Amino acid sequence: MANPQDRYAIIVEKFRKKSLKLTPQRLAIAKILALSKGHPSVEEIFEQLKKTFSTMSLATVYRNVLLLKSFGEVLELSFPDGSNRYDGNRPYPHPHVICIKCGAIVDPALDALKDLTHLVAKETGFQILTHRFDFFGICRRCQNSDKK
Amino acid sequence: MANPQDRYAIIVEKFRKKSLKLTPQRLAIAKILALSKGHPSVEEIFEQLKKTFSTMSLATVYRNVLLLKSFGEVLELSFPDGSNRYDGNRPYPHPHVICIKCGAIVDPALDALKDLTHLVAKETGFQILTHRFDFFGICRRCQNSDKK
DNA sequence: TTCTTAAAAGATAATAGTTATTATTTATTA
DNA sequence: TAATAAATAATAACTATTATCTTTTAAGAA
Ligand SMILES: [Mn+2]
Ligand SMILES: [Mn+2]
Ligand SMILES: [Zn+2]
Ligand SMILES: [Zn+2]
Predict the structure, then answer these.
(1) What is the per-residue pLDDT across B25-66, written as a single tens digit (0 to 9) for each?
(2) Do A82 and A100 fall into the same domain?
(3) First and final C-alpha spacing in chain A
(4) What is A88-141 written as a DSSP string?
(5) Which of A13, A59, A118, B34 is deepest in the core (most CB within 10 A)?
(6) Cα A84 off chain centre by
(7) Whose C1' is closest to the CA of A62: which nucleotide?
(8) pLDDT tens for residues A106-124?
(9) Are B133 and A128 within 8 A, CB to CB?
(10) DSSP state of B1
């Protein structure tokens, strides 16, 4: 996991470079995404920020997440049920392990993937640009709570 | 690729076993999915069937695809842009290679994956149930048409 | 074949997550 | 402090999918 402070600084610098205003709402959203503890959803970010910004609008969260996506500073994980989760700490393709019971998402250490990309390119003739690897299952905590 | 006739027979047998009616529309949808040439979308299935069934309703396609999903006889591939594609020929998790230009989806031969699942289970403590592996890129045909 | 009926089709309304719009507010700079 | 371009907040619009409801039909019985 990248250092959240570093990631935050990188994102703020991007805003500066593009002469975008550093509003408190925008910076707060960036801070949450730079940490990205547990890959938050837009709704979760919104709920968290409502405590600090009483007038916070859901549209503002969507707008800024979209903006950061366009900069390549946040990775969007969209799921079949329509929900989206975000990783602003590691904004590049990497595998994820998702608990189908509690929704927890973790980043596993898994290296054997660039080989796969090359293999696929060779076999299909595609020029591979990105990928998405998701493992779905039940996390340790949910396995234990099932046994009760 | 499984034999489309075999897949069709398996699906029809499932309908029979569950005492579901074998309507012409339902059977036509099953036939297209059993072939699954290019992983069709609901819209594509609908457009194709309108030629034969002038009164065909989009809702009927959705309803039957949903039904086949619930039987485990079709694999749904949902994408970030909201589009869904279906594989009724191989209705179990397997990797896909997707062209971001023309939307082509192919099934690559790629075996080194069950190992990965075990690796991830071991490392994270998750009980892994299913997965989704997508490679995004540009197909050979689109690479060539770009050069023009 | 005709009758009966539960299920499916067709048409359309509802839903939900996201994006667009617009008036108001605000960060930035001079 | 004042000017202004951009962001916010509130809400409308959008779109793919699902639900609802009426009409039609497949399938089994007589
Ligand atoms: Mn991640
Ligand atoms: Mn496939
Ligand atoms: Zn869990
Ligand atoms: Zn292509």
Answers:
(1) 999 999 999 998 889 999 999 999 999 999 999 999 999 999
(2) no
(3) 33
(4) SSS-S---EEEETTT--EE-----TTHHHHHHHHHHH--EEEEEEEEEEEE-HH
(5) B34
(6) 9
(7) C18
(8) 999 887 777 889 999 999 9
(9) no
(10) -
Nearest CA-CA partner of A73 in A91, A85, A95, A94: A91
pLDDT tens figures, A47-78: 999 999 999 999 999 999 999 999 999 999 99
| A83 and A57 share one domain | yes
DSSP B115-127: HHHHHHHHHH--E
> Is residue A82's pLDDT more than 90?
no
Whether residues A140 and B125 touch (CB distance < 8 A) is answered with yes
Q: B138 C-alpha vs ligand 4 centroid, how far in Å?
A: 5
Residue type, A148: K
Beta strand spans in chain B (E): 75-78, 84-87, 96-99, 105-106, 127-138
User: What is the Cα–Cα distance from B14 to B71, expressed in whole angstroms?
Assistant: 8
Query: What's the number of domains chain A is made of?
Result: 2
